[in-house]
Amino acid sequence: MSAAAVNQLVLTACVAELGALRFTPAGLPAIDLRLEHESTVTEAAQLRQVKAALKAVAFGAVAERLARQGMGSLWRFQGFLATPRNGKHPVLHIQDFQQD
Questions:
Q1: Which family does it belong to (predicted)?
Q2: Which structural domains are found in the chain, ordered by start?
Q3: Cα(57)–Cα(60) distance, rounded to whole angstroms?
Q4: How many CB atoms lie within 10 A of CB 90?
């Protein structure tokens, strides 16, 4: 892997599921959520309806902020993708979010 490798994701999505605020063994606030995205994009010169559901997690102050948000609220999330040790699908690690 080169030093210039990039793993960044920006996604506008709504909060479909929001777990309870929990704490890691190190005492760091954490929250699990599921995001849902829906949009229209152009692919091969054709309009396409896109829907996606994605598991996500946040830690620290970002987790505490997310715990106060309502279900179904729409946000612009920024973060990176990582596959959990025993997982099959990537999870979005949210580093920041703001009102879209």
A1: Belongs to the PriB family.
A2: 9-99 (2.40.50.140)
A3: 11
A4: 15
Q: Is 97 exposed, middle or buried (0-12, 13-18, 19+ CB in 10 A)?
A: buried
Nearest residue to 54 via CA among 19, 5, 87, 11: 11
Determine the Cα–Cα distance for residues 91 and 96; give it in Å rounded to an integer.
15
Token representation of residue 83: 């596959």
β-strand partners of 100: none
Query: What is d(CA 3, CA 27) in angstroms, rounded to the nearest whole number?
Result: 31
Name the pTM for this structure. Answer: 0.90
Among candidate residues 57, 52, 100, the one with its CA nearest the CA of residue 79: 57
Could you read off the pLDDT of 18-42 as tens digits, one per residue?
999 999 999 999 999 999 999 999 9
